[in-house]
Structure formats: C-alpha cells, structure tokens
From TrEMBL:
Organism whose genome encodes this protein: Clostridium septicum
PROSITE patterns attached to this UniProt entry: HTH_DEOR_1, HTH_DEOR_2
Transmembrane segments: none
SUPFAM superfamilies: NagB/RpiA/CoA transferase-like (SSF100950), Winged helix' DNA-binding domain (SSF46785)
Protein name (Swiss-Prot/TrEMBL): DeoR/GlpR family DNA-binding transcription regulator
Chain ranges of the HTH deoR-type domain: 3-58
Keywords, comma-separated and alphabetical: DNA-binding, Transcription, Transcription regulation
Record lineage: Bacteria, Bacillati, Bacillota, Clostridia, Eubacteriales
Length: 249
C-alpha cells in the first residue's frame, strides 16, 4: 500500500476514534510496525496527529473539551484498570473527594464494601454511590451540562468546608513543567480546592494525557500522586512525585 493511502486511513481512524493503537493501524493497513511508526512520525511532524505510547491521538486545542458522553466512551479498559488500582489507596474510615471525571466514577464499584464517606461534584457519580450504598454528599452549585459537574462559587464554598483524607481527580493534561491542567476555569478551581483540602491527592489518567497541556492549571505534579496505565519516560515523573502504574497482565 502506498504511503498516501496509509496516511489517509490513519487520519480517518484517529479522527473518528480519538485514540488509536499501533495494532489497529497495522491491521487496517496490512503494514509492519516499523512502517506505521514512520507514518506516525511523518504525520506528527505535519501537525496532523499526536503520537502517544503505542499509538496516536487527535490534536486538541488547549480550550477544547469533550462532553461527558464523549469522554466516557474512550479508553474504557485503561480507565477501569486505573480505577481498580486507585481503589486500593482507600481505607476504611476514609473521607474522600471524587471529581466529576469519567475515570474517577469507575472507582466507585470497587469501594462498595468499604466504610467510607465520599464527597463529589459529579452528577453521574452520585447515582453510582447511592446504588453501591456508600455514604455520600453532593456539592451544591451550578451544573455544567457538558461534563455533568457541579461548579461555581457555591460549590467552592461547599468544598472548602471539608477536609479529606484523599482526593481523586482527572486531568486533561499532565506536563512536567506545566503541571496538571483542564480546559475549564471553574472546574480547575474545584480541583485546586480539593488538593488544598486533602491530606493526599491522586491524579488518575491514561497514557494519552502525558505531555498534554490544557488551558487552566490546577496543580503541580509535585502536589499529587499519579496513577496511570502506562507512562513513557517514567523516571522523569518519578523524580518529581510518586507514580503508580497498572501491572500488565
């Protein structure tokens, strides 16, 4: 297959799925891994996509944000694996905060047998918490329709009344020098407050988020423990903070 045809197939895949793996591209194009790696390097240099560990993803602007439904359909296995590992950090008697992310909601099913108290600003999360008989509290405030999050001044006042043992947050980007970032100022304020009011803070993110920078910073890497499914240049991040990686089965 000529390179132009492969490039067209690769771009169609990444634009339709958001994130694609090397194996997917190899199967679709009937090409070798080395050929596809060269293609991805070429397309990245042209600004058509961004390479990530084991594949590629679309390029997004710093202020662009997917809806909750769009986020929840991506990287499902990675989110579940990360959430399961994160749940091991929660002990009986803990009071924790879960933000409105699509990875943090996956933790809830692993917490149903623990005696804990959970505060969240996630509308989707509160139903899961109730269904699993977990003591919980929903922040009050303004509803952000796209991400199903409670935000705004009232939510900030609410969260500042609490002191948490741990908080678990999502992040649109994690960058060594730029820190943890998200597209929305009001969501960033809630995340920042959660970190400030917690004894220990965790960022849950899959490998597509590393090296990404979104519009608003809510924390430095040194402020959090990173829990992920995979990470390139892990020593760079481990020099700054604790990193927990899902074990490959």
């Amino acid at each position: 297959m000529v390179s132009e045809k492969r490039h067209s197939i690769i771009l169609n895949l990444v634009n339709s799925k958001g994130v694609i793996t090397l194996s997917e591209i190899m199967n679709e194009t009937n090409s070798s891994e080395s050929t596809i790696r060269r293609d991805l390097t070429f397309l990245e240099e042209k600004g058509a996509l961004k390479r990530i560990h084991g594949g590629a993803k679309t390029i997004s602007s710093p202020s662009e944000e997917l809806t909750y439904s769009e986020k929840s359909s991506k990287n499902l296995q990675a989110k579940s694996d990360i959430a399961k590992l994160a749940s091991l950090e929660v002990n009986n008697g803990d009071s924790i905060f879960l933000d409105a992310g699509t990875t943090t909601i996956e933790i809830i099913k692993y917490l149903k047998d623990k005696n804990i108290f959970v505060v969240t600003n996630g509308l989707k999360h509160i139903d899961e918490l109730i269904d699993n008989n977990i003591n919980c509290y929903l922040l009050g405030g303004k509803i952000k329709f796209t991400t199903k999050a409670i935000i705004g001044g009232d939510a900030l006042k609410c969260i500042n009344k609490f002191r948490f043992d741990k908080c678990f947050l999502g992040s649109n980007g994690i960058h060594v020098s730029m820190g943890c970032t998200t597209p929305d100022t009001e969501e960033a304020i809630i995340k920042e407050a959660a970190i400030k009011n917690s004894k220990k803070s965790y960022i849950l993110c899959d490998d597509s988020k590393f090296g990404e920078v979104s519009l608003v910073k809510f924390g430095d890497i040194q402020d959090v423990t990173i829990i992920t499914n995979n990470i390139e240049n892990i020593s760079t991040y481990k020099n700054l903070t604790e990193v927990k990686v899902v074990e490959k089965s």
